């Protein structure tokens, strides 16, 4: 199987063996473009992506050269999966080829968001800086943000505060200038009782907007931070330290004192442990 990973650095494997022989940057970018864009594509369109400022005949000639270089780098077995007809080119879309971003799209469409996010949560092709890469890198971040938003909403509805905050934080990391993402994080931190962290998230947004865009947060965001600053202070809720109810040992069968010493202890507010149950 030919495996092509586009998130992070471009990585190409054939039957578990990494292919390192594609030295040409142009050929690597061409392979990445064909892997990212599923299906067969007119040669004219592909040539225009990579050589937009030359005549069509020259662009098509350059494309032929890049394809030949790519075939040599892939080797005979892998290059058989590179489809290049007279008018169209692409990478086979079948069981012999796996591409991370393609699988992420499939999983997201099937509602398997956690698995999809695991494949696409990262920057696209960090070792390439072509114009098409920069555009699609932004698009991939947006798709990851949508998955994080859906996962965070689901966690919040299920009462999983920790997961809801974690997804919101990651969404802000992907787009530090997004006021919408930051407001979601601030609200969730506020509901968790961590008002200080919510205000810190606002201050980080305010600094980023001023530094990168010369702007200030919107009235909606400023109103939210004022509400959080003026809200009654409550201890932050950490699901791992919520006191549990003392569980009672079953009446039968009787347990030895050794077994009794391993019975779970409850955590009291403030971190103190309840005394271990004594065997009778």
Automatic annotation (TrEMBL):
Domain Bacterial transcriptional activator as annotated: residue spans: 99-229
Among the Pfam families in the record, one is BTAD
Region spans: Disordered: 255-280
Q: Where are the TPR repeats?
A: 145-178
InterPro entries of this UniProt entry?
AfsR-DnrI-RedD_regulator, BTAD, TPR-like_helical_dom_sf, TPR_rpt, WH-like_DNA-bd_sf
Q: Could you confirm whether the keyword Membrane appears in this record? A: no
UniProt KW keywords: TPR repeat
Does the UniProt entry include the keyword Repeat? no
The name this protein goes by in its record: Bacterial transcriptional activator domain-containing protein
Q: Which organism is it from?
A: uncultured Solirubrobacteraceae bacterium
